[in-house]
Model the fold of this input.
Amino acid sequence: MIKVGAITVGQAPRVDVTKDILPILGENIELIQAGALDGMSKEELKGIEPQEGDYVLVSRLRDGSSVRFAERHILPRLQAAIDKLTAEGAELILMLCTGEFPPELRAEVPLLYPCRLLDGIVPAVAPRGRIGVVVPDISQKEQNIRRWDGIVSEVTVAAASPYADMAGIKAVAGELRALDVDVLILDCIGYTQEMKELLRKETGKKILLPRTVLARVVRELVD
Done:
């Protein structure tokens, strides 16, 4: 068995993610998980809500609800999660979040960030540099536009929560259908294979789903 770590910026375990990635990872991988918000109460979570100018993250709690928070509050907790999984024998670690993180985070084993994988993949599959991006919360629009600056020539951002029902995805599909883009990116680890399939059916566009992109890179590394 190959031991692989997975860190969520929310609370572990991310059973909503593993349902799509475990079939790809295969039976010879043992997935161990940790979360930056593990052990935090509802009251404590209120203390990390984003303020003006913060880099906003959205993730899932253990009870299935979602939460918005500022990245700056969780960086020490992310480092603790990295250290914990490394100590437990993880040969590589997956970051179950598509957000951008500072280089101060350290790992003694490969630490795979979906955002960095997408940085390489998107230019290859978007020859005109035109992309559409779906994010969980509209407050993430401007930071997402900045995120793609210099990588693509044109980005359109729409919002639909992956932690609500499928109605939000279906509603945003009409907006996305009219876009003249090379590819759509579901820019949150919370978006599911089912959501991708619905969006592809409704828009006819090519779509990148970060959770399965991440899992397929892991499979390539361990084969």
Notes: The chain is about 40% helix and 20% strand.
